[in-house]
Structures are given as C-alpha cells and as structure tokens.
Amino acid sequence: MVGVSYEDAQQSVTRHLVSRFRLNTEKIHGVYAGTGGLETRETVSAYLDGAARISPLQRDLVSYAVNQLLPASQLIAGAVRAPYSGSYPSVACGYGPGADEDRVVIQGRADHPLTHAAMLRHEESERLSSLRSSGLLEAPLTESIARLPRIARDHFGTMAAAVTLVDREVLVSKSIIGLPNRDRPRRGSFCEETVQDNRTFIVADAQSDPRFSDSPHVVGPPYFRFYAGHPILGPGGSRIGALCIVDDRPRSLSHAEEHKLRMLAALVQLEILT
C-alpha cells in the first residue's frame, strides 16, 4: 500500500469539503486573507484544486477559512472538518485543533483547576530552561524579528509594541518601539499573565481589571490601559515570552485584528525556530 503524507491528506480532505459543500473560493480567500494569509487568490485556488503546495501555516489558515464557511451541520461533534497540520508555528499561534473556537480571553483567561505548587514550580523551571536554551536573552534579535514590533504598532495604531521575554524576575524587551528599552519587573505584569496559557491575552481596560488597576504602570507613567499579547514558544514548547501591543486608552480588537496579532506572533515564532 502506497503511503499518503499528512500534507496530502490535509489537502485532500479540505478539497473534498470545498467540493461537497460548494464553497466559494473567493470567499475562502477573503477569510484566509483576513487572518493574515499571504498567498494570492490564484495560489489558494490552485491549492484547493490539488495543483499547488503551500507551507504548513498557510495550509492551516486555509483550513481555518474553510471551517468558518462550512454549514451548521458540520459544527456538531464528530463532523468532518478541514484538518490542521499541527506544525509548531501553527499551534503556537492558535491555528491547530480547536482553532475554530473562540481562543481569545478578554479581561482575563479562563479558569483552570488548581495545580499543585510542586507542579507549578516544575513548569516554571522547564520554562526558564527553555528560555535559557533559546539563546535569545544574550543574542541580539535578527532584523526580521526586530522589525515586527514596529509593524505591529503601525498596524494597530497603538502607543507601543514589543517582543518581550519573561525571565525569572524581570521582563526583557528584546525589541520595543514607543517606550524606553529597559527591563521591567515581572511580578504583576501583563506578560506574566500571557505566558500562563496558549491563548491570546487581552485586557481592554486595565483600570477596571482588579489584577492590574493598582499597577504602577497603570496608575502612573506610561498609564497603560490596553494590552494584547500572544505567547511565543521556546525549545520544548514552553512559553518564554510574547509579542504584545499596549496603549494609553481603552480599546478592543476586531476578529481580523486578533488574527493579525497571531500572524505577527507566528512570524516571530518562525524566526526563532529557524
């Protein structure tokens, strides 16, 4: 029996769903592009015809777009949906199993069962080990990563943006635009919350969030009100930092903006892994 690669299987199932439910390729590309997809409509159409290959992350964005357009009958448990590659950057940025559910937490993350203190210490030890082994604390960022905060700030129109690493006691801003580049205390910070989960972490108004309302950076300069960050993974899959945006006024993100932030985080992730 001839083996079939997962890439072929992913493409085949996605093509089958598009054909079975007569999904419009132009609409698929519209959703795909809205999440930050980089391929042209012609390339996506060729992929769905089985005539082109695209990267795992771009395939997963096509799968996401197809799943968003499937009829309600395919939303029940057990129904066939366009599969995801499970590639490291895709999963890190939320485009894996469960990507079609709401993965964004506003005003805090979802409740989790209490975890034994020893397990938390072990996880933190693993996280710090991953951060050290990444080499990012000592080495300067590549130009490709260093430019992403400026792209993020300009796109979202926020006061500042940064690629921040979460060390044992401090936040290390490896690339920051809009604020002075200096280490900041980790305890009680937005980024500390971001690395607790694989979800995008959003605080619409820090003054009304009891975890941050008395923070020195909220009640005093630079008067943070809004924060959004997506975790970045290091070796072994531990969350070592975040790509984040901050503003001095309350605001929210549209679904397209949420996806754009995750796509920018995916670019950071790709640079780290290569």
Order of helices and strands: HHHHHEHHHEEEHEHEEH
Helix/strand class: alpha+beta
What is the CATH T-level topology of the largest domain?
A: Beta-Lactamase
Shape, per Cα inertia axes: globular
Strand content: 5-15%
Helical residue percent band: 40-55%
Poorly predicted regions: 101-116
Number of domains: 2
Strand order of the largest sheet: 1-5-6-7-2-3-4
Kindly state the number of beta strands. Answer: 7
First-to-last CA distance: 34 Å
Q: Supply the CATH class of the largest domain.
A: Alpha Beta
Average predicted local confidence, pLDDT: 83
* Total helical segments: 11
Radius of gyration: 20 Å
Largest sheet: 7 strands, mixed
Task: Give a verbal description of the structure.
The protein is of the alpha+beta class and 274 residues long. The protein has 11 helices and 7 strands. Strands 1-5-6-7-2-3-4 form a 7-stranded mixed β-sheet. Residues 101-116 have low confidence and may be disordered.
